[in-house]
Amino acid sequence: MKKWLCAAVAAIVGVVSLLSFGACGKGNGKIKVSIGMWPDPTLTKDVEMYQKWEEAFERDYPQYDIVGDRYEYSADTIMAKATSKQLPTVFQTYFTEPQKLIENGWVADITDQLNELGWLDKMDVDMRAAVSDSAGRCYGVPRDGYGMGLFLNCAMLYDVGVIDKDADGNYKLHDDEGNPLYPTTFDEIREVSERIVESYDNTYGLVILSANNNGGWQFTNMAWNFGCAAMQVRGADGKYKANLNDAGAVKALEWIQDMANDGLIYPDASLTYVDWYSKIGSKNVAMAFCGNDNIMMPVTTFNFNKDDIAFVPMPTGDGQSRYSLYGGTPFVFSSYATEEQIKGALLFLKYMGRSPETDEISVSAIEVGHQTAQAKAMPIIQTIRPWTNAEFLEIANRLDKQYTNVNPYYYADFFDSLEQMKRPEEPYYCQDMYKLLDNAIQNVLSNPGTANCKSLLDTANSQFQSNYLNKL
Amino acid sequence: MKKEKLYDRSSVSYKAKRLFKRNWSGWLLMLPGLLLFLFFVWAPLAQNVILSFNETKGFESVGFNNFDNYIRVFNDPMFTKALANTFKYILWSIIIGFLVPIFLGLLLSEVVHFKPFFRLGIYFPSIVSGIAVVIMWSYLFDPNPGAVLNQLLTALGIPVSQFLSNPSLTIPLIVVTMTWRGAGGTVLVYLSALQNIDNSQYEAARMDGAGALSRVLHVTLPHIMPTIRMLFILQIISVFQVFYEPLVMTSGGPDGASISLLLLSYRYAFESFDAGASAATGVILAVIIIILTVIYLRISMPKKDKVSNKWRRYAEKVKK
Q1: Residues A269 and B165 sit within 8 Å (Cβ to Cβ)
Q2: Which candidate, A138, A128, A127, places its Cα nearest to that of A102?
């Protein structure tokens, strides 16, 4: 009996070990390219779109095997993914991240491949700088850019008499002399918020984000527009000094404090990015600051009526400073991927319509993207493209216009002014700076009656200087 | 000479061989478990201590840096907040999380009708996913006057609350959430301890004229004291490890008002990519837990027959 038992145990251990080792190293002899941008299986229309691109690519390049390996970039997962060598061949991140990824050696230098493809010279200069190191080597392909602006719920603003309607029932954002009716200053945002709060129950004028670095991200743009020259200033000795407690930044924080004190902004001190569109979508607020690349979020997640959306330039605080924080999304490539895999991933971008190419494949890919967005009833608006070659821009803009399903007038002021207003994010440790600013905003939102804005920003400033900028 | 050494029965290698030979199938059965423990628990534990004394790049050590990581952590103002908060978590968890299950256990042991129903009702939150629970409570604690709890407060004529956005309420409310989810399991442990008490002792106390409170104080509590003591230590250890509740509900805010040591350690590792500081925070946390546990055990360790002595004294008192 004992012998039988021993034999059975040994057999089970052996079989389990064999199965464990046997599971490793399965392959079909093709070059595997894993795509981190692959959509979630619940987004069936997006999955179909990716499958169409995959079929077309594998037909033309049979040596490649495209594999969906969804990875939504976040600062708190990248280290674990990179250290365990589980990053997909290509994935998306933000413009604030490449420097950190390059420094840690997690993304691949693709300068030579881009040169070979002839894409490097066609890249927007500002966007190229965001994905390059100090020696000019390039580590990513920008997907698109965004500028921060003011999202308006036109239905609410019309109800409280801020904007008007024309004879066709379209919202009028300007008076007869062409002056904007929507808020163009922070004082006007306050006035509109007061009207909203008076007219609706449990509804606020604006939502101010305050957690997961989103508060600092929004606040930086607000501080610039209140007259802060820069949050990081280069001194005469060439070293960077923190300037988080600049007079403009203090005024911006005091403006938030006054709004909170008077109950005009959503009363929560830990709001993350998802909250701007959940509060807009559930009609708890009438206005929000966001990037133009995410305008569709209230529509796709909360069935917000896309015809009630207008997106206008960031307001000014001091009457002179008008900036729009300019960021974006680049594709980056795992440093563990082989040259062949990176080449395959770059070629796949062409089949997604994300390259500067203008051949039939690229045009058809952009069209498939627009058709999918249309099928999902997403608002299709102008995109800030990363490529500067005239032929590509002509085709892309033509397709944007052809497929648009919103009134371009509601977005015209934003896009018309973006070129003058756009301003890239601060140069160093941006996310860490945003985190410290988050703390100051949270303190103001949770103690609006007593918080000392200057002192809070002094603390953030000294911490940013000693913990981060001094490392440079 | 060689033969003599082979049969040296006092040698360690002989004893080890004998132990293995006598029970080799048992060792074989334990092997996968031991390997898993080695790989997933002991090795990372040792590596964490090593990392805490090293400069790191990712999770890799790039050189010994003495106590630099510890100095950096101690100089971080957020560490002071996290340390103070951790003790606040403990205080509130003793007030809310420790007493509530004892009270519920006593109440449940007295219930005559629908006992299984109440038992299930109390245990039910424990089977819900932790993340789902904290998200649900985050919605309930929404500071909008139109949100559920604020509507309730308004209906009761109480002013609306900022809930989690109010720094003085953040930790108690997070502890309420933790207790709502975790109390069920603890109540069942108390219930089983209560059911082990011999009924004749209650009857004797009743015959001696002891009231309900007296019975609880002099019969029930002394009998369940070992369970209370054990769960008290476990409670403190688990509160030291509070992590995902503040992460999901407040991100450690407002302005660090709810950040815990473990959340700070997570931030060092995964937001600042500073695995050395993260490991140092983990070691500091472990040292604090060990010290507190030893102190507590020293203070509260009962003499072997403390319970029976107490009971004997009570019986003598009643006799007189």
Answers
A1: yes
A2: A138
Question: Considering Cα of A90, then A91, then A95, then A99, what sign does the dihedral take?
Answer: negative
CB-based burial of residue A361 (10 Å sphere; 0-12 exposed, 13-18 middle, 19+ buried)? middle
Return the SS3 of A92. Answer: strand
Give residue B99's identity as a one-letter amino acid code: L
Predicted local confidence at residue A347, as pLDDT: 94
Least Cα distance to B69 among B84, B48, B55 occurs for B55
pTM: 0.80
Q: Grade residue A440 by pLDDT with cuts at 50, 70 and 90.
A: very high
Query: If you average pLDDT over every residue of chain A, what do you get?
Result: 90
Helix axes B167-195 and B130-140, enclosed angle (nearest 10): 130
A–B CB contacts, 8 A cutoff, strictly below:
95
Share of chain B above pLDDT 90, in %: 21
Residue of A nearest to B57 (CA): A104
Q: Do A439 and B255 touch (CB under 8 A)?
A: yes
pLDDT for B208-254, tens place per residue?
887 878 888 888 888 888 888 888 888 888 888 889 999 999 888 78
Provide, as residue numbers in chain B, all residues whose Cβ is less than 8 Å from the Cβ of A439: 253, 255-256
Domains of chain A: 2-144+328-403 (3.40.190.10), 146-326+416-471 (3.40.190.10)
Helix (H) or strand (E) holding A311: strand A309-313
pLDDT tens-digit readout, B25-73: 888 888 899 999 898 989 989 999 999 999 888 788 888 888 999 998 9
Contact B167 A447 (CB under 8 A): yes
How many other C-beta atoms are found inside a 10 Å radius of the C-beta of residue A121?
11
A contacts of B142 (beta carbons < 8 Å) = 268
Is the preceding peptide bond at B246 cis, omega within 30 degrees of 0?
Answer: no
